[in-house]
Every structure is written in C-alpha cells, then in structure tokens.
C-alpha cells in the first residue's frame, strides 16, 4: 500500500529525513518510535503532502502510484488520512458540517454524488456510538474549547467517517489520560481491517498495549535504524534509546 524509497526531505534546504525506507502492506499496523527531533512528525507530514516540506530525493509510492508531486487534498481523496498531534480549532464550523464537507469533497473527486442526508446521519450515529461520542458534541465548533481527549477522539471520529485506506496517527496519545487513551485505541482497533493500513507515531509503549502493532520501527537522525515486532517497543520502554545509539557507532 505504501512504499517509501530512499526518502530525503526537509525544510529550507536542510534535510530532516535522510534516506527513509519503509514498506506498509494492507492489513498491517506499523509503529514508529524515536527520540524528540528524530523526524517522526516530518515523515507523517511529508507522506500527507504538507507543502512546507521539500522532498529532495526518493519516492513515496502509494498503491503503485508515485504521489510525491500530489497536493495534500489529492492524497486525502485517494485515502490518506493524517491525525494531528495538535488539532487546530475552527470556530463557527460544527463537527458535523466539517465531516459532511470532507466526505462529499472526496466523493466529488471520485465523480460521485453527495452522500444522501439519511445515509450520512445513519453513519454519523453509528460511528459516534462506536467511539462513545455524545451527540451534543457533534454540533459544537470543531475543536473549539475541546479538552485534549475530546480533540483526539474527534480526530478518530473523522477517521471513522472518512474510512481512509492509509491512516497516519501522529502522537494521538500525547496529553491523554488512560481512560481517553483506551477509548481512542478502541476506536482505532475497530477500524482495523484487511483493506486498510495504520501507521502510529508514538513516544510511549503504553499506546502499543492497546493498539498492538505488527512492526515497530525506530527513527533516529532522519533514518529508520532498527525494526522489529512489538517486543522492541517494550525493550525501548525499559532501556531507552542509548543502546541503539551505541549499536550505530
């Protein structure tokens, strides 16, 4: 589904990613861990197409198509979803209207008619119930006055509604207490299927107790320096990152 080959990318002429290689197949969950400043969020942003980052070398191939030159909305229409570490507030736009617009824009890009209102309402009810979201929440302005947990739950609600093929969750666990973490993780697990793939970027192994990854990758200095199974995450929790740095010397 996603194949990243020898990817170099950065800001203002300075590379942050320095030769990333990663392959994600449908049905898989990959976790990317690493110290602060190692390039995790940059990788998420570059795959999603954030325009301030410049790709200087390499390829991002999604479903056998090089998407390096596509705009963020084109990538979104093809089924790539990025949840933000710090979701922004949009006063005056309700959660429901935001979702309706996003879904219908994607349908328009696929030459489909808008989703019928009755179908949209049914889907909103189902997904809100799945994520234990109060219906009143859906009429509030997007992220305005939301707690950290509400913002993250709302991001997973958007993911549930948009049904992306590739979801990238950038530190969805930051700022969450254990109850909110469980609700978010439960929502992600219910959305896992053989037809989609999920990339989870996290600092902490605790999230991976709830969203169990097939593979864990360690990103350092803009490169993936070690890969393994979920056991690698436990080892990182116990030993930190210094032992990996020593292995690289």
From TrEMBL:
The keyword Nucleotide-binding applies. Residues 2-246 form the ABC transporter domain. Keywords: ATP-binding, Nucleotide-binding. The keyword ATP-binding applies. It comes from the Bacteria. GO terms for molecular function: ATP binding; ATP hydrolysis activity. InterPro entries: AAA+_ATPase, ABC_transporter-like_ATP-bd, FeS-cluster_ATPase_SufC, P-loop_NTPase. Belongs to the ABC transporter superfamily. Ycf16 family. This is Fe-S cluster assembly ATPase SufC. The lineage of its organism: Bacteria, Pseudomonadati, Bacteroidota, Flavobacteriia, Flavobacteriales.
